[in-house]
Structures are given as C-alpha cells and as structure tokens.
Design a protein that fits this description.
Strand content: under 5%
Radius of gyration: 11 Å
Number of domains: 1
Order of helices and strands: HHH
Number of helices: 3
C-alpha cells in the first residue's frame, strides 16, 4: 500500500465532513476513511490549531 501524506488525509477528512448529512464523530470518520482513530484525532487537532 502506498504511503499517504498527512495533507491528503486532512483533505479526505474535510471532504467527508463537507458531504456528510450530519456531524461525523472521529470513530465514524475513521471507519469511513479507513484511517486509524488516533490519526484522525491528531490530524483534526493539528488542522484546528493551524487553520481555525
């Protein structure tokens, strides 16, 4: 499996959240995107600190 960059994963998270009909939990994002839940948490925390 090819290595996926953090930026790609953050963009996948943003896309999933933007298309969701309801707020998604980290667990739901993890399951939908096949990204480990701790990674989801880390990426969201970093994204929020840097952007919002």
């Amino acid at each position: 499996m090819p290595k996926v960059s953090s930026i790609t994963r953050v963009l996948e998270i943003i896309e999933a959240v933007s298309y969701a009909s309801k707020p998604l939990s980290p667990l739901e994002l993890s399951q939908e995107l096949d990204i480990p839940k701790p990674t989801i948490h880390r990426l969201i925390q970093t994204w929020l600190m840097m952007v919002f």
